[in-house]
Amino acid sequence: MAELSPNLKQATGVVAARGQGALLWDEDDRRYLDFTAGIGVTGTGHSHPKVVAAAQEQVAKIIHAQYTTVMHRPLLDLTERLSEVLPSGLDSLFFANSGSEAVEAALRLVRQATGRPNIIAFHGGFHGRTVAAASLTTSGTRFRSGFAPLMAGVHISPFPDPTHYGWSEAEATTFALNQLDYTLQTMSAPADTAAFIVEPVLGEGGYVPGNAEFFAGLRERADRHGILLIVDEIQTGWGRTGEFWGGDHFGLRPDVITTAKGIASGFPLSAIAASEELMSKAWAGSQGGTYGANAVACAAALATLDVITSENLVANARERGAQLRGALERVAADHSAITDVRGLGLMLGNEFRDADGRPDGATAARAQQAAAERGLLLLTCGPWGQVVRFIPALVVTEEQVTEAGQIWAEVVQAVL
Ligand code: PMP
């Protein structure tokens, strides 16, 4: 009998049978508060009725209309509607299926457009598991070990992570920008550098927000040297952080944006957006794919956009995020092992450290497991797995956040 790869590890023992909003039931009909949302995917909640209806309607019309063979209405409509939310000037779109594919598409574009080979990514970033995307990923060696050589032409420069360096945000930012200049002076000359790629908030790397000064510094250097700025909004986009894009918190102005996860409420869909001028520099035939912009996924994305707007989900992420943060901070105040509560909107992390101040993945894992046993699904992140993260659907209610906060208080009490 065939079995799943033993390498495919699950964070919880749950076999999901059905879900609704921020709730999920297993096959024994046990109810869980799902504060994982499919790793930040189901922003409108599980099986939102409007997303379900749009997908069902589309399934009955046409499922697959391959977009380099024939065009389909949901893709045309989605492309047009995305101008409502995309940063101004980013008016040209290419669609694929996964976040990693969007990152690869962005890489191809910036290299072809500039004729330059190198990419500078930032330490702790996660950009995907395909070989090129893994080459840019430094949130943990597990994503890049054992299948080298990775893609050449990648340089890694520090991200302003105050907790990691043990400095103030201002100190970490000065350091990160100085090191970037050093990298451009010593390793990747501007004339060889096609792009910077950066997350507004390090996601898998431990839920570390960037800051306005750092991003302004990146933008200034990009403009000065003709380097393009790719902002990876795959985890931070679609309202997750309490703004539509994570970069909106910092006035971040991308040349290329990558998006996926929240875009289609769980259907596989991703995209890159750039100015038409930049996108037209992609070489002929370099953008395509069998499944990209699947018609059902595009219909679901249109419904997702409607739901986010009509239910004010970005504002809800902000309000429920503030409520959740308050609850997490109250727990942390009573337990010195939780050394930091951080993040934006409904993208919040709790960092665990041991008595010597070292990242404590073992305790974070015990807390995550104990929470699942008590009916609260959570994930860990961070290089050592030392951060327990909360990423519920944007439809999460005040009562559900209160309940999650109570369970978390019990869990931390029990494991510490
Ligand atoms: N970029 C970021 C910021 C991500 O968080 C992820 C997924 N966690 C990816 C890229 C890769 O996306 P996917 O898993 O869909 O390939």
List the helices and strands and how they pair.
Blueprint: E1 16-20, E2 23-26, E3 31-34, H1 37-40, H2 49-61, H3 73-82, E4 92-96, H4 99-114, E5 118-122, H5 131-135, E6 154-157, H6 162-165, H7 169-186, E7 193-198, E8 201-202, E9 208-209, H8 212-225, E10 228-232, E11 256-259, E12 270-274, H9 276-279, H10 295-310, H11 313-333, E13 338-344, E14 347-352, H12 361-373, E15 376-377, E16 379-381, E17 387-390, H13 398-415
Helix pairs in contact: 2-10, 3-10, 7-8, 11-13, 12-13
The structure holds 4'-deoxy-4'-aminopyridoxal-5'-phosphate.
Structural commentary:
With 416 residues, the protein is an alpha/beta fold. The chain has two domains: 16-34 and 312-415, Aspartate Aminotransferase, domain 1, CATH 3.90.1150.10; 51-310, Aspartate Aminotransferase, domain 2. Helices cover 38% and strands 18% of the residues. It has a seven-stranded mixed β-sheet with strand order 4-12-11-10-7-5-6, with helices on both faces. Strands 1-2-3-15 form a four-stranded mixed β-sheet. Strand 5, helix 5 (131-135) and strand 6 form a beta-alpha-beta unit. Helix 11 (313-333) packs parallel to helix 13 (398-415). Residues 39, 98-100, 103, 126-128, 199, 203-204, 232, 234-235, 260 line the site of 4'-deoxy-4'-aminopyridoxal-5'-phosphate.
